[in-house]
Structure formats: C-alpha cells, structure tokens
Design brief:
With 80 residues, the chain is of the alpha+beta class. It is built from two helices and four strands, in the order ααββββ. Strand 2 and strand 3 form a beta hairpin. The longest helix is centred in the N-terminal third of the chain and has 24 residues.
Length: 80
C-alpha cells in the first residue's frame, strides 16, 4: 500500500503544489506550465521507482503463497 502512495505522490505532487501555489498567490493570468510539471512528475516517478526497486525487504529466493480458503476461513498471503 505504501508503494502505491509513493507512486501517486511522485506523479501528482508537482501538479498539486503548483495548484496550491497559484491558488494562494491568486495568479489567475498565468498559464499552467504543463511541460515543466510533466517533466518534474516524470523525474519524481523515476526516483520513486528506483527507491522502491532497491528498498524491497524480500530476497529473490522468497516464495510467495497466495491467499486461500481453508476450512471456510480466508488465510492471508505469505512470503516464505
């Protein structure tokens, strides 16, 4: 879940910060610099993906067992 939040923040943060900046200063006559914001978003996305790639807690030998039903109860997924 935290990975999804980091990725969403990396994509949406430049646009949200610009919106807050223009709203607070009431810059109504300026155009939105969509190219600059998109480049900043892509750079943050690459940084976030690189961070998540090397931050993983699981080794390559980890076995994943998906969630399953046993005796009418749902057993959560496991990483062994």
């Amino acid at each position: 879940m935290i990975k999804k939040i980091i990725l969403l923040l990396a994509i949406l943060a430049p646009f949200g910060l610009y919106f807050l900046y223009s709203w607070l200063l009431k810059l109504e006559k300026k155009r939105i610099p969509i190219v600059k914001l998109s480049v900043a978003s892509v750079i943050l996305l690459i940084i976030a993906l690189g961070f998540l790639r090397f931050y993983g807690d699981f080794s390559p030998d980890t076995k994943y067992s998906p969630a399953k039903y046993e005796d009418g109860e749902l057993k959560p997924a496991e990483n062994k």
